[in-house]
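STRUCTURE:
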């Protein structure tokens, strides 16, 4: 087993006033040659957007873009004609493929919106752009690792992307133990602690810590407090 540990306070940070963003991997003005990506996982941004503010229309291509809100309401518009609001409990995916334009805005003027923006390199280029969004209840995530993202064409649940990648969310009670079995032996897992404290394969992790694990068939996970975690299994 090989691991790479990223403590929360080692992330890149940019505060633009309207946007307060923490970068696990190199992004925009933050560059660390040792932290470009973890396999096909390219971006993991922890964003807070002020009331009424947001990202104007901008282009993407050949990237799988996943958004996971944790607070507030994020309004999405794109060149495919989609206009949606994504909220806590939702997971949204956009396959940029041959190219799209989209914007993201805090729908509310009086409160922040917080969300994770995640980019995954696709396994196919120049696909037709697509959009999907699903809601997952806290009950479904309680003391289990619920699949919320899976490869296109599988029946594994969640929204689907053009990559042999599986994302799982879990809301775990203190002292709860579970095992995550990797779907493919050539994949690795990047585990990110959204809230609380957990131990994964013997490594203690705290809020917003991340750890990349490769050359392991499974993850042994123990919640040291009430915790919420995100597992991203991706090709490495």
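SEQUENCE:
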């Amino acid at each position: 087993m090989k691991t790479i540990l990223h403590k929360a306070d080692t992330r890149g940070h940019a505060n633009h006033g309207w946007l307060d963003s923490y970068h696990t991997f190199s992004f925009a003005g933050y560059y660390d040659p040792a932290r470009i990506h973890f396999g096909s996982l390219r971006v993991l941004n922890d964003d807070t957007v002020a009331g009424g503010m947001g990202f104007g229309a901008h282009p993407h291509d050949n990237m799988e873009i996943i958004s996971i809100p944790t607070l507030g309401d994020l309004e999405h518009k794109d060149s495919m004609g989609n206009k949606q609001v994504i909220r806590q409990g939702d997971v949204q995916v956009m396959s940029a493929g041959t190219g799209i334009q989209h914007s993201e805005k805090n729908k509310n003027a009086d409160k922040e919106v917080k969300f994770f923006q995640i980019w995954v390199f696709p396994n196919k280029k120049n696909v037709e752009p697509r959009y999907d969004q699903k809601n997952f209840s806290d009950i479904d995530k309680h003391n289990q690792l619920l699949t919320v993202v899976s490869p296109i064409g599988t029946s594994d649940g969640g929204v689907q992307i053009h990559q042999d990648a599986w994302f799982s969310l879990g809301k775990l009670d203190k002292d709860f133990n579970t095992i995550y079995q990797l779907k493919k032996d050539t994949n690795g897992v990047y585990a990110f602690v959204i809230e609380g404290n957990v131990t994964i394969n013997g490594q203690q992790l705290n809020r917003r810590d991340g750890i990349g694990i490769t050359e392991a068939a499974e993850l042994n996970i123990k919640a040291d407090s009430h915790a919420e975690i995100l597992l991203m299994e991706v090709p490495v």
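REMARK: The longest helix spans residues 138-141.
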